[in-house]
Amino acid sequence: MKARVLDRIGRVTTWVLIFDKDEEVMAKLTDFATAEGISAAHFTAIGAFKDALLGYFDPTCRDYVKTSIDEQVEVLSMDGDVALDRGDPKVHAHVVVSKADGRAYGGHLLNGRVWPTLELVLTESPEHLRRRTDRESGLALIDLDASATPPAT
Q: Quick one: pLDDT at residue 137?
């Protein structure tokens, strides 16, 4: 993965990340957020996957129903955020992909291997976002009451 700062205004930084062939997006993006100390951000991306695993959260069993896509697909839209979960950056992404015949599949991106590229623009936020486990669903949801703006440097 290659990364470059596109813009930096005050405490807001915008990055472009270009993922290479065979890289797993969720792991690489989490590694990037950790290395850069990113605690709050949002992103969007387009490109393609050679395979992907999507999830639909089933509240009855409090787990993801998984859809495995074991073929080349276009990433029509990928959106998500980064927030702290127990002090570490956690990436949350949703994606819509299209097969060769135009059928679209979407859901929570659990993992996706890039082929040949994925172009992602990430904008860091000056506000630190924190996740807290929701007792009812079992999911780590953004908790605005637990989020705080860091002191100015």
A: 84
Cα–Cα nearest to 82, from 27, 129, 35: 129
pLDDT in tens, 102-111: 999 999 999 9
Tell me how many domains the chain contains: 1
Closest Cα to residue 93, out of 122, 115, 134, 69? Answer: 122
Q: Is the pTM here over 0.90, yes or no?
A: no
Please check whether residue 117 lies inside any domain of the structure: yes
Tokens 């990340």 appear where?
17
**Running DSSP on this structure, what letter comes out for residue 101?**
T
| CATH, residue 109 | 3.30.1330.80
Provide the pLDDT for residue 146: 72
| 40-58/12-19 β-pairing | unpaired
Does residue 105 fall inside a structural domain?
Answer: yes
Structure tokens at 18: 């270009």
If one counts every other C-beta atom within 10 angstroms of the C-beta of residue 151, the result is: 5
Query: How far apart are alpha carbons 52 and 69 in whole angstroms?
Result: 5
Residue 134: pLDDT band with limits 50, 70, 90: confident
